[in-house]
Amino acid sequence: MNKKIYKKIIIYGLGLLLLGWTSSLWAQVQFKARLLTGGGPNVEAAINVRINIKSYTDADEVRQLLQVYNSGGEDAFWPAFYKIDKGSVIFFGGLGMNISFHAAYEKSTDKGFKIILFSKSHNIDPGSKRLIYGGFLFLVVELDLDKNYRGDGKVFEDARIRFTEQGTIEMESYTRAPKTLVGVSLVK
Fold first, then answer.
1. Average pLDDT, integer, range 42-50
2. Is 115 exposed, middle or buried (0-12, 13-18, 19+ CB in 10 A)?
3. Cβ-proximal residues to 85 (8 Å cutoff; 6+ apart), any chain
4. Using only C-alpha atoms, what is the Rg of the chain?
5. pLDDT tens per residue across span 61-98
6. pTM for the model
7. What is the pLDDT of residues 164-182, one digit of tens each?
């Protein structure tokens, strides 16, 4: 009798361990896309982009960031924000940048999903000069995807954000027109 109980406990324990291990892999996704950069008169140049998402942001993380910001201002906020690692956006070609992002959300929509990523503001356009805007600015990547995780997106280089009462971060406004991501698809 005891052997059967021990076997069941071991089997259930291994099942729970396997479930915990695979659930952490579910949040790790990778997308590929092309960023349209212009390229000159009547020419659309594009840069390959890879988006790696390690995990999504929860309400407790946002509340902690808000608490840090309220108690220490921007000087305290940025180090706390940088400690959170949610993944990266890699731009191949052009400036060849690898930008870590520190907040990530996936929301259901009527057509599929919207994924929103947040990092500190960066200039991603090759050859352009960085414009100086005052304020607390972020790089925001929005992906609008269908149920098969295919679609398009936008990159906002200088966006303002806000913290919500639900413990999320949202883009409030932006200062420059967004760059366009085309051919967004899940990497298998």
1. 73
2. buried
3. 54, 100, 102
4. 20
5. 999 999 998 999 888 998 999 999 999 998 886 667 78
6. 0.76
7. 888 889 999 998 889 899 9
* pLDDT of 163 higher than 90: no
Q: Is residue 128 within 8 Å of residue 109, measured between CB atoms? A: no
Give the integer Cα–Cα distance in Å for 186 and 188. 6
Q: Which two tokens stand for residue 41?
A: 């008169």
Can you read off the two tokens belonging to residue 107?
């929301």
Q: Which of 88, 85, 104, 105 is nearest to 96 (CA)?
A: 88
CA-to-CA dists, residue 26 to 19, 20, 23, 50, 117, angstroms: 10, 10, 5, 18, 17
**Rounded Cα–Cα distance for residues 113 and 150 (Å):** 9
Residue-range domain boundaries for the chain: 27-186
